[in-house]
TrEMBL record:
Keyword check for Magnesium: yes
Signal peptide segment: 1-20
Binding site for Mg(2+): D197, D306, T308, E460
Protein name listed in UniProt: alkaline phosphatase
Amino acid sequence: MKITLLTVFSLATICSSALAGSTSSTSSYKLRPDPEGQFPRLGACPDAHACIFPPDVSQFIPGAYFDLRVELHAYDEDTSKPTPAPYTQFKTTVRKNNGPWSDVNRYFDLPNPKLEEWNFSWVNSIDAHLGTIKDGKPVSPVNVAVSSRAWRKLKFKEAGSYEIKVEYGPKQSYTVKYTVPKKPKQKAKNVILFISDGTNTGMITAARAVAKAHTSGKYHEFLSFESFDNLGHVITNSVDSLTTDSANSASAYSTGHKSSVNALSVYCDSSEDPFDDPKVESITELIRRRQPNKAIGIVTTAYGQDATPAAFVSHTRKRSTYQEISDQIINGVPDWTDPVIPDVWLTGGAEYFKGPLSLNGTDYYKEFSKKGYKVVQNKKDLNNYNGKDKLMGVFRQGSLDVWFERNLYVNNTVGNKAAPDMSGKDALGSDQPGLEDMTIKALETLKKRGGDDGFFLMSEAASVDKKLHVFDFPRAFAELVELDVTIKKTVEWLKKNGEYEDTLILVTADHAHSFDVWGSVDRNYLSGHVDNTAKLNSIGVYGQSGWPGYFDTNGDGFPDNWTPNIVLAAGTSNGPDHYEAWNTSKDEIRNPSITGPDKLTYIPNPEDAAGDYQKGLKWNSNLPTEENQGVHSMSDVFIYSNGPGSDLFKKTFENWDLFFKMAEAMDLLRPTKKEN
Ligand SMILES: *[C@@H]1O[C@H](CO)[C@@H](O)[C@H](O)[C@H]1NC(C)=O
Ligand SMILES: *[C@@H]1O[C@H](CO)[C@@H](O)[C@H](O)[C@H]1NC(C)=O
Ligand SMILES: *[C@@H]1O[C@H](CO)[C@@H](O)[C@H](O)[C@H]1NC(C)=O
Ligand SMILES: *[C@@H]1O[C@H](CO)[C@@H](O)[C@H](O)[C@H]1NC(C)=O
Ligand SMILES: [Zn+2]
């Protein structure tokens, strides 16, 4: 026994030293940790002068498209010195499975792309960011002279490990490694991806406490998705920052690649043009190429150009390029795969589909109609649609009104002039569908269109995030409860229509807010006292944290009363100066902070009823002065999963891996015969 063990040990030693030797002699590859600092030169560029996008440790599906961009950065951080000459001479090579290196042009059989040159300013410190005056001069950013080449629409046909190397300057080189894994086949006919924007586990717990009855502290039932087969954790940080916005987190879900703040399904290069950044193929584009008969649906309570839906239909460095995003839905982008043209599109954002804000004044309702869409603009017409044509529903300019304004305080929508036909009339809350109406109609239509090939649906509860940013907790709870009811109705619909066993359902968030509850509050006591000590004592903790007064007696899944005296003592870990009284804003949406007299910092809003201005508890800012709302936080988010393939989602994984897991579940990993 002892001898065997020794033999194994010594063999292993020999193997690993032989391996180390061969690695150092044939490869310049070295995994480099991200550097320290708040102001990276450019996302995912650990080398001092070279950047390759997609960056190191990227993963691809065999045959999935991507753009490759190499950038070389000449600069001197000592800004009193001139900018060095750009690196115009460089060589880019590729190799597979540690084989011989070959020129990128030759390997992908493409002409050498033209050399591009530009400069950008690298803001490398807080002082440069704020333009701090030092020695009588503002601290200036570093001028970076860039030379670059971009190869468009590449793919790795086969599984394996690949390296891309750029050699530049007298002796320098930088190498990145990609993997193209081979995975087993597994099949779900349909996938429904519910994204509850900005929702953390604390919000799930709070929504349960608000919506579900309990006796002796035991719940009668949980939220609908809490009985799902599996539960996992998703790590949400972006390619180059701790906290993410919805653009790069949705891109990670959509493409399998992490990105930077504001970027949609591209890696960010340093050039000015927001449309020339290296693109990566999205799950929706891959479905169109590999399973063209599968139906695709996009549903959101936000405007359709907003980050989460946009990541599934567009490629841009700037999430605010709403006009072009609208156009890309049906027209796509040049030199890339075909546009997604979803079978179902149910959103807000009318102002970018018609009228002065739409791209070149185009009437996209007409353009969508020409592509065979039935276009609807209110809840009644949506519910009445029973056809088989593609369906476009746009119900409001901007984001749809939230559940409160669609159901409780409809009068708050009088005078919004937000009608989706751009007539200047109002889009009344009662005329707008909710997430449930849209999701069920999407399922009906997708089933008709996808038939045996099934469907992929992304359905987003967008305003959980939007209401958490402004600490409008009752409205945020209602948005999440609406998602809960929607998922319950979805499961019922799937069972009734014979699709339940074939459908993978995912319920996740794109990132967290640092929301939690630390007790309950007596609102009357709080507003009935003037001195701060008494006000603080309105909060009950531990043994005094009795239940809030929400009750759902009519069984519709929503509490019947949204303004009980005892409510949750809730908040997030960050915010600008504001007041908190946990009142429900009845007359308008909450806006806790406004621009102060100095025009630079934010102060509590005198109109903030939920904060009970100067009578509620004072909350002091812990944010940089440019932030007028609470910001996202970095904790991992939940992912509940149910049905075929749900085992894949029961662990802790990174946001980019969701794409690969969905692709595996839908059997999208292998190139079709037509492709090769
Ligand atoms: C970049 O900056 C350098 C130094 O300021 C300048 O000489 C050069 O012309 C600039 N290049 C471009 C493409 O703007
Ligand atoms: C919009 O107009 C600009 C300027 O005339 C033109 O370059 C562009 O191609 C137009 N875009 C579309 C989608 O029509
Ligand atoms: C809404 O406004 C209408 C017309 O101004 C009014 O008659 C109605 O009472 C209002 N409803 C509520 C719930 O305030
Ligand atoms: C906040 O709620 C308390 C208790 O219901 C009430 O007395 C007070 O007037 C409310 N404040 C505002 C600004 O609505
Ligand atoms: Zn947000």
